[in-house]
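Project standup — Tuesday

K.O.: blocked on the structure for the chain from last sprint. Re-posting the sequence here as requested.
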Amino acid sequence: MKKGYVELFNMNRDLINGYKVRCSNHQELLASLKLVNLIIQKAGRMRSMYMALSIILKMYFEIIIKCLALFVEVCICQLDHDFKC
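H.V.: unblocked you, prediction finished:
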């Protein structure tokens, strides 16, 4: 019985630590995205309205493409890791 509680305690601790890491990563991501958004907005103010819109859209699309590529890479890596366990 005691062994079961110890295993449950360890599993719970691992889950909580994993949540803390994900939460920290999420906060860092939000801060980074806010900074990127601010940079894009400032770049957009330097040009005429048409050029600003064009620059902003190009920047957002580049960010989205890179984020999607990174997301796919992480998912594939996670799937590989899951199958190895």
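K.O.: great, moving the ticket to review. The CA atoms of residues 75 and 81 lie 10 Å apart. The two ends are 27 Å apart (CA to CA).
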